[in-house]
Amino acid sequence: MDKKPVESTPLLEVKNLQTAFSINDSWHNAVDDVSFQVGRKRIVGVVGESGCGKSVLSLSVIGLLPKVNSQIRSGSVLFNGKNLTRLSEDEMNDVRGKDISMIFQEPMTSLNPVLTIGYQLQEVLFNHMNISKAEAREKSIALLKSVGISRSEKLIDEYPHQLSGGMRQRVMIAMAVACQPKLLIADEPTTALDVTVQAQILELLKEIQESNDMSIIMITHDLGVVAEMCDEVIVMYGGKIVEHTDVDTLFYAPKHPYTKA
Ligand SMILES: Nc1ncnc2c1ncn2[C@@H]1O[C@H](COP(=O)(O)OP(=O)(O)OP(=O)(O)O)[C@@H](O)[C@H]1O
Ligand SMILES: [Mg+2]
Hints:
By secondary structure, the chain is an alpha/beta fold. Helices cover 38% and strands 26% of the residues. A hairpin with a 2-residue loop joins strand 9 (232-237) and strand 10 (240-246). Helix 4 (117-128) packs across helix 5 (133-146).
């Protein structure tokens, strides 16, 4: 197999992806023949009505589909040219957090309530880096500072419930970018937050994207977020991609009826 130089391979290339759920012994496609690419340092929005497959698509990419009743039926997810759908669970654990990270809509469900913020952040670092406890603590404090938490020396020993929603989402972002992944998938990262906090979090994501040369897949219901943040946008409908254009084209000349609406 000839190897293309890294820069000419897209960061992420999803090809003919089909992900299905097993319901009463038959398969139902939630993601149906989806193909798209995410270039380096690009922010790609994914929009579409509730249930159209946005979350299932991101879980397929990062390998976190519920194993009991779902599976990737066909297609591939190439990250830097490497097919992630072929990786073992161990190999995928290696990719997750280091190369690709995800932040979820409701940070309370993804932070462990009985562990301190510092413990959870250091766990991510230990997974992918060979560092001492003291180094991990120092790095965690610096990471929390970098996401705009000024009292991070204190906060590191606190528990998730002691933090506001906006603070928790900042912690989630710190965890997601701790190992400087090249791709961040953000599934409705600000929906649970009030408008001013939402704007601050989006601003923070944009800053990190620029300083880390990261790409983002930004799932959102909010076309304002798309206009503000994204370079291109994918519109999904019924498990399929019905439109994929740069953001300016979407707002001036939408093609699909859903987009127009
Ligand atoms: N655990 C599951 N078991 C069975 N079907 C599921 C499961 N999770 C999702 N689905 C189905 O997959 C389809 C896509 O769901 P998905 O969660 O990706 O939608 P979404 O676009 O993220 O919606 P929302 O905007 O509401 O978050 C839906 O028809 C949904 O019913
Ligand atoms: Mg969803």
